[in-house]
């Protein structure tokens, strides 16, 4: 990332995972920078709302692990408000406006991608996966899986489609 910015004529002060700080003497032109970042597989976040939305996505990925491992998992809203100094209502509004998707729908997509991963390993039954992902039943998971993917779980297993999405592509 550092080299990319330098080749584009910018003088980065620091570059860390997901963040680049430019030297103040270097004027940043977001319209010129965005295509360079996209070509390298990155995305320019233009405002606080977009930054918050990306942070929420990251925390929701952590929430999936919490769901899987916690004895008595927190609700989505409690988990998010524990991580941010904001109400769930505010987080939800910002996320929906920025991602054009509700937190709940994003979380469902995230869970289904995790379910695809678990199915591809072939180690667990559907009911075991449903239990780990905190679905009320294997049938509930199966219904939601079909709704999101267009395939039944058994069709997915039979075809073993490599249609998993990167987490960035979920929105």
UniProtKB/TrEMBL annotation:
Domain called HTH araC/xylS-type: residue spans: 54-159
SMART domains, alphabetized: HTH_ARAC
Molecular function via GO: DNA-binding transcription factor activity; sequence-specific DNA binding
Alphabetically ordered keywords of this record: DNA-binding, Transcription, Transcription regulation
UniProt entry tagged with the keyword ATP-binding: no
Annotated transmembrane regions: none
Protein name: Helix-turn-helix domain-containing protein
Source species: Hymenobacter montanus
């Amino acid at each position: 990332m550092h080299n990319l910015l330098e080749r584009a004529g910018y003088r980065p002060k620091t570059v860390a995972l997901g963040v680049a700080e430019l030297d103040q003497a270097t004027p940043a032109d977001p319209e010129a920078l965005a295509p360079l970042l996209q070509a390298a597989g990155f995305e320019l976040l233009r405002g606080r709302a977009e930054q918050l939305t990306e942070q929420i996505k990251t925390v929701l990925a952590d929430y999936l692990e919490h769901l899987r491992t916690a004895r008595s998992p927190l609700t989505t809203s409690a988990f998010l408000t524990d991580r941010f100094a904001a109400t769930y209502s505010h987080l939800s509004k910002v996320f929906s406006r920025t991602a054009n998707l509700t937190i709940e729908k994003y979380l469902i997509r995230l869970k289904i991608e995790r379910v695809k991963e678990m199915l591809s390993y072939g180690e667990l039954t559907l009911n075991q996966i449903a239990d780990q992902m905190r679905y009320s039943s294997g049938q509930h998971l199966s219904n939601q899986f079909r709704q999101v993917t267009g395939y039944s779980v058994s069709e997915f297993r039979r075809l073993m489609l490599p249609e998993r999405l990167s987490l960035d592509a979920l929105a």
